[in-house]
Amino acid sequence: MEKRKELIVSAIENGTVIDHIPADKVFQVVKILGLDKVNNPVYFGTNVESKKYGTKGFVKISDKYFEPEDVNKIALVAPTASIIEIKDYEVINKQTVTIPERIEHIVKCFNPNCVTNKEHDIPTKFRVKRVDGKIRLVCHYCEKYTSEENIEFI
Amino acid sequence: MSISLKNRSLISISDYTPEEICHVLDIAEDFEKNPHQNLLNGRIIASLFFEPSTRTRLSFETAIQLLGGNVIGFSSTAGTSIQKGESLADTITMVASYADLIVMRNPIDGSARFASEVSKVPIINAGDGSNQHPTQCMLDLYSIRKTQGTLENLEITLVGDLKYGRTVHSLVEAMSHFNAKFNLVSPVELKLPRTVKQHIKDAHLEYEQFTELEDVIPHSDIIYMTRVQRERFPDPLEYEKVKNSYVLRNAMLANAKPNCRILHPLPRVNEIHVDVDANPKAYYFQQAQNGVYARQALIAAILGLK
Predict the structure, then answer these.
(1) Active site includes B84?
(2) Residue B199 belongs to domain spanning
(3) What gap in Å lies between CA B215 and CA B232, rounded to an integer?
(4) How far does the CA of residue A142 sit from the closest CA of chain B (Å)?
(5) Which of B12, B87, B107 comes nearest A119 by C-beta?
């Protein structure tokens, strides 16, 4: 019997699709983009079959578009993600995320003695470096490194 | 073009270019010849020491007084509003409205950079936790240039705790601008971190790692000693095994080069035997004295008076 192919989640009329998210990073992407706090309809899936990556995750947000610097924040956890903008069910723009050179406010400094962890209300700032293909964040304040495996989102 | 450091906070030694560093050293040289210069003429410098310090605080306060300035501040947080829970931002904002310049030591990493962002007057970092201590680096560079006649093409041997010693990290970073060769002598537990070695690699310079001090003494221009602290070793037995390997004794200097000088950021505990003190190659007390001239130079330059 022929296998029926169906869209897992219905297409959105207007909004943004974030595709090719590593399957285990979908919830982090939702959190980084603040989608757990919006009123727009948000659909997401994880462990979905992907020809390119084996499995993947995706997020669809109706009636919402992102600024590049916002969406690039997810590059820290989902460097393979692509951002697809939809208008009237048509793709109007598609791009892959790029890792920003600087990130602010979204990641905690790994150094417990950093001023951003000791004082209240100091937003974190990092320079983003790539060392041997891995992301390394250099704290603007304490100058210590936060490596990829220690990244913790605020 | 003339170099001006007016209103430029010094938080990390990398904030200044090699030319700007040399400019500060030139000014320091002038202060060494003529330390009493009433350039501050009653201006107020805040000396905020959130943790105790002997040499750094005293040499800053000496520098300010030699320049004819007045000092306000504290040497520990006891009895200050910080103990009542005042934020660093509020303390700095308040003090910046009283003083022309703030000298700050604070045990929190990154506190100096943060202070420089909230303060309307420049900040000189007198040590922020384990992060930076750029004025120590400046006086180390001054001492090296003074004893060797140059900063270029020197063989610098760094000994002891190269992992946690912030003065070592800053010195490596700064000397990487001047074509140095580095000999790194430390127990395996306290090797120079990879991130600091990267400065040497980025400048395409050489370094060698050693676990024995005696091997490198005959070809060193500078031997920069640091203290190997017992508390850095998770296993006290490991400390016992290595503690005597990094103690410099006078007899070990028999084959040292005539221009070789021994530096140490002080306080010394037992890593330089007292029998070295009488050797003309021992330079650590003059080095501490040079701290006054280097700090005079920084204060004068940052206030635009030199």
Answers:
(1) yes
(2) 135-288
(3) 25
(4) 4
(5) B87
List the Cα angle A31/A35/A40 in 5-degree steps: 170
Which residue of A113, A139, A140 is in closest CB contact with B108? A113
The highest-level CATH class for domain A102-153 is mainly beta
Task: Report, as an integer, the average pLDDT of A11-25.
Answer: 92
Query: Given B133, B166, B177, B264, which residue is catalytic?
Result: B133
In the residue annotation, B105 being an active-site residue is answered as yes
A100 has a pLDDT exceeding 90: no
ipTM score for this prediction? 0.90
Say what the pLDDT of residue B75 is.
93
CATH second-level architecture of A15-96?
Answer: 2-Layer Sandwich (3.30)
Does the predicted model carry a pTM greater than 0.90? Answer: no
Contacts of A112 in chain B (CB under 8 A): none
DSSP per residue over B170-211, as a string? HHHHHHGGGT-EEEEE--GGGPPPHHHHHHHHHTT--EEEES
- Copy the structure tokens of residue B44: 């107020």
Residues B41 and B117 in one domain: yes
Closest CA to B259 of B182, B143, B148, B139: B148
Is residue B3 one of the residues assigned to a domain? no
Contact B88 A120 (CB under 8 A): no
- Return the pLDDT at B72: 97
Active site includes B169? no
Q: State the Cα–Cα distance between residues B113 and B123, nearest whole angstrom.
A: 9
What CATH number should be reported for the domain holding residue B28?
Answer: 3.40.50.1370
pLDDT at B249: 96
pLDDT at B274: 97
What would the DSSP string read from start to end of B12-55? SGGGS-HHHHHHHHHHHHHHHH------STT-EEEEEESS--SH
Q: Are the Cβ atoms of A143 and B131 closer than 8 angstroms?
A: yes
Buried b (16+ CB within 10 A) or exposed e, B75-108: bebeeeebeeeeebbebbeebbeebbbbbbbbeb
Q: Is the pLDDT of residue B219 over 70?
A: yes
